[in-house]
Amino acid sequence: GSLYNDSRSRLLDKLAEISPKNLQRFFLSNSGAEAVECAIKLARRYTGKKEIIAMMGGYHGKTLGALSATWDKKYRAPFLPLLPEFKHVPYGDAAKLREAITENTAAIIVEPIQGEGGIRVPPEGYLQEVREICDEKGILMIADEIQTGFGRTGKIFACEHWQIVPDILCLAKAVAGGLPLGVTMAKEDIMLSFKVGEHSTTFGGNPLVCSAAYAAIEVLLEERLTERAKELGRFFIGELKNLKSKYRTIRDVRGLGLMVGVESRFDVLKILQNLLSNGVLALDAGRNIVRFLPPLVISREQLSTVVEVFERALAEDENERLRS
């Protein structure tokens, strides 16, 4: 991965085309957790400070540094003590964030929309205020777009919804169409704070995954999948909100594009099992939230089928509760 290859060069050019113009330096690795590890090291190296502020409800991976930024105790507890100099503040509360900053704060890491934490869309103005606080205090803003990036929310990067550009941005998951690739992008002066050999990877940027990633980006752009996610997301969320008016089980429907969460008043395990047995793969995002992340190539008809299967699962779940 550390040696030059044409596939990597071509991919880097393509990434530069679609990325914010001041995020033009890239480090290629093998996973989202590695992308976050790079971001943490980069922030500490550039600023000379150690403290990282993360968000309650945030998820960034399970390697030691990424896990230190992750909130959920079920992931953290078996591996304590984790790295020092990490703290967590409430997501969406800029005042609490401001209070937590010290002279030793290197960076803030935040998901534009929390995925594992419940498909939580930020309050209006929150991410802009985070950006302003970082600028005011001279600390770095790290955006974890591992789940939100590459068209998922109706923009190539979710940060675009709020017209903000972070100092460091982490990508993975969709970037190589299913093959393992993580990307850490940063402003030039930040990335160049790494001296040669201080951070490297054997397989990151290998020809196979770079070729796959280039092809995936071409498809994303040529087939207008980002715009498709925006349009289908409106339809899907609208249909799910119609179910909310019919089933008291549903407390909330939220999301952007094809990143959608349905919050239930109860545990959703049986609903997820019902969906799976009827051909719909969904995830939880906490005990009581169904997380839908359909492929960007899904059709409106297929989404309608998902809604129908979900409604049957809701009806069965409610009937079972009434009987018990």
Going across the biggest sheet, name each strand in turn.
1-7-6-5-4-2-3
Q: Which CATH top level class of the largest domain fits?
A: Alpha Beta
How many domains is the backbone divided into? 2
Biggest β-sheet strands, sense, barrel:
7 strands, mixed
Order of helices and strands: HEHEHHEHEHEEEHHHEEHEEH
What is the tally of beta strands?
Answer: 11
Can you tell me the CATH topology of the largest domain? Aspartate Aminotransferase, domain 2
Structural class comes to alpha/beta
Radius of gyration: 20 Å
- Beta content: 15-25%
Mean pLDDT: 97
- Let me know the CATH homologous superfamily of the largest domain: Type I PLP-dependent aspartate aminotransferase-like (Major domain)
Number of helices: 11
Folded structure, characterized:
With 324 residues, the chain is α/β, with parallel strands linked by helices. It folds into 2 domains: 6-222, Type I PLP-dependent aspartate aminotransferase-like (Major domain) (Aspartate Aminotransferase, domain 2), CATH 3.40.640.10; 225-323, Aspartate Aminotransferase, domain 1, CATH 3.90.1150. It has helices spanning 6-18, 32-47, 64-69, 73-76, 94-100, 126-137, 188-191, 207-222, 225-244, 269-277, 300-323, and strands at residues 25-29, 51-55, 86-89, 105-110, 140-144, 168-171, 182-186, 250-256, 259-264, 283-284, 289-292. The strands form 2 sheets. The chain has a 7-stranded mixed sheet, with helices on both faces. A hairpin with a 2-residue loop joins strand 8 and strand 9 (259-264).
